[in-house]
Amino acid sequence: MDNIKFGRFIRESRQGKGMTQKQLAEQIHVSDKAVSKWENGAGFPDIKILEPLAECLGVSLLELMQGERMKGSAIDTREAEQVVADTISQSKQAQEWKRRMWKVKLLLGACSCGILYLICVGICYLAGQKSGTVPMNFWKGQNNAWYENPVFFYVWAGILVILCGVGAVYLLWKNESIREIKIGRHKVKSILTILMDMLVVFLLHTYLSNIANNEQQLAMLPQAIPVNAYITTADGSRQSGIFIRDKLVQGLLDSSYVDKLQMDVRLKAGIDRVIPGQWNTLNLYLEGVNCIETLGVIKESDVVWNTGEDASFLQGTEAKCIVSKKLFDRKGWKLGDKVTLCQWYYYREDESNAELFANPLQTMKYEIAGYVDMMGKWDERFVVPPDVIVPFHVVRKCYAQEGIPFFASSASFQVSNTLSLNAFKQEMKDLGFRSVAPTVPDRSINGVALNVNDASFISTAEHLRQVIDTVRAFFPFLLLLIVGVGYLITLLLLQSRKSEMALLRSIGLNRRKCFHVFFVDQLTLVITGVVAGSVLSVLIQGNYGGSSALAGGLVGICYLAGNSLALWKLLGVSVMEALFVEG
Q1: Cα-based distances in Å from 391 to 152, 244, 272, 388
Q2: Measured CA distances, 536 to 150, 483, 543 (Å)
Q3: 20: how many CB neighbours lie within 10 A of its CB?
């Protein structure tokens, strides 16, 4: 049966009865939209409705099925059987088409879910990377997250999406009205579409990987260019042998921005006892340090350690010490011996004056944990190498027990979170440190200024941020460019297929349905090109987590947007014009 002829006959019969579509629909218990579809040749009524429809229109069932008035009073039996058979076949085809379209919608829905999955994973990864949190793992292999095994991930996800898309196209191809619309008949155009998608994905992946590389360099910058800081006098002339208040010392210990803190405090000492007036008995220099690195060129491997000992005791409060080899040999000591040291601390009667005095602090017994040759290995900033090295916090504890104000002799460290330099500097300012003022001479030796060597880091970080911001600024224009590429490529490649579009329109498919047919055709090609381009980009350029997943998803969406605009424009050409031009 001819849908167009059948629909025209219904319209003419209805109008002959003086009925509207709505009135006819109410009499046979269907919607007026269904009647409109029948009359436009876009659908066919269920076989159960044919008899009541014929009665309402005042025609015979055979006349309705033939789509024309019968001139004779009788009809051949075989002819009637053939008409009924055609009607039943047409009804079954319509029902089969409805069932097939449900399957197509399910498959296309699965395709959409797969593409959205890739985009969501990419966005979540990038958002987590930007905020410094671990992104949610949507899929995991045996040991690694999906973004650590990109090839397998893209392959299985891409195959799933492609299979669903191909399945949808196959179901559509089984319909008689569009069986001629096949990708195989346009191999060159199909290959060009796939290659263009691969190229666009590769270029976008390069663009996003450039951003990811710069962000990674920025994140790794603190390790590449560490920012060192040290306490000095107000004019910056001295950074050792100064007086740093205990409040500032505690602030450095508590700060989350301070890393690898090195501090020391210098005392005078005598063995066993110091006799007032006989200052030759106060003949040792004692250095309190919180780590072995404070000692300059002396390394942990340079020390001859007692069994089971290492430099970690310098960070604690155990009464142990390292002595110079010269003193160790002269006194005939052995590792593990305990020696009594009379400790004296330096102080100033006037904080604005650098003149130093010494007073007794506390007598302590220290266990010898090791000895080292100090000669020729002491840091240049110290004029005289120490004779005894003890834990910094042991000395600080002695000050507290005696009720004496504590002062450190030097302090230096690395800034841990250099990407937040402004917050760090504000914290140090609130703590009481000031900026170095080299033009104002300072005769005191108060450690009140903070010198931060951050010029090189700031210059490099600002350059990387400018590059990232500049590249990101072009991102919206790049997406619009991809839409334009999809529009132009589709417009050029599908010019020769106007006759196919006209053919579909001529057999009764409206513009929307024709668009759906060609869109699914292009969707398969685009998905194939996007997945292939994503896998190729990852293999050649490496995986960039969310950037790799996001590149494919964005190309697919933007390219299809341009593709849809071009298709809709091509379908706007009149049927007669398209057929005439083709002919």
Answers
A1: 54, 17, 19, 10
A2: 11, 22, 11
A3: 12
Measured distance CA(282)–CA(293) in Å, rounded: 27
Which of 193, 303, 94, 304 has its CA nearest to residue 562? Answer: 193
Which residue type sits at 447? G
Cβ partners under 8 Å of residue 183, min gap 6: 169, 190, 521, 524, 525
Measured in Å, how far apart are the chain's first and last C-alpha atoms? 28
Angle at 245 between CA 241 and CA 249, to 5 degrees: 95
H or E element at residue 261: strand 258-271
Where do we find the tokens 């939209």?
33
Question: CA torsion, points 490, 493, 496, 500, in degrees to nearest 10?
Answer: -50
Nearest 5°: the CA angle 465, 471, 477 is 150
Structure tokens at 480: 């619009």
């001139």: which residue's tokens?
Answer: 71
Please determine, for residue 195, whether its predicted confidence score (pLDDT) is greater than 70. Answer: yes
Question: Closest Cα partner for 86 from 205, 182, 5?
Answer: 5
Element (H, E) at 312: none
- Asked whether the beta carbons of 468 and 211 are under 8 A apart, the reply is yes
> What gap in Å lies between CA 87 and CA 110, rounded to an integer?
35
Q: How far is CA 89 from the centre of its chain?
A: 56
Q: Which of 81-85, 310-314, 421-425 has the lowest mean pLDDT?
A: 81-85
Instruction: Write down the residue that tokens 């933007």 correspond to.
Output: 558
Summarize the confidence of residues 207-226 as an average pLDDT: 83
Contacts of 373 (CB under 8 A, 6+ apart): 302, 324, 325, 326
Beta strands in 350-479 (DSSP E): 357-372, 388-391, 407-408, 410-415, 449-453
Longest Cα–Cα distance of the chain, Å, equals: 149
Beta bridge partners of 107: none
Residue found by looking up tokens 């350059």 in the block: 463
pTM: 0.57
Please count the other Cβ atoms lying within 10 Å of the Cβ belonging to residue 544.
27
Please report, rounded to a whole number, the percentage of residues in the chain having pLDDT higher than 90.
27
Model pLDDT for residues 294-346, shown as the tens digit of each residue: 888 788 999 999 999 999 999 999 999 999 999 999 999 999 999 999 999 99
Q: What is the pLDDT of residues 369-422, one digit of tens each?
A: 999 987 655 555 556 789 999 999 999 999 999 999 999 999 999 998 888 888
Mean pLDDT of 352-379: 84
User: What domains can you pick out in the chain, each with its CATH number?
Assistant: 3-75 (1.10.260.40), 98-221+466-582 (no CATH), 228-453 (no CATH)
Rounded-to-integer distance, Cα 280 and Cα 69, Å: 137
Helix, strand, or coil here: 433? coil
The residue with greater pLDDT, 280 or 411, is 411
Provide the pLDDT for residue 297: 77
The predicted pLDDT at position 156 comes to 58
Amino acid at 540: I
Burial of residue 204, with CB atoms counted within 10 A of its CB: 0-12 exposed, 13-18 middle, 19 or more buried:
buried
Which phi and psi (to 5°) does residue 573 adopt? -70, 140
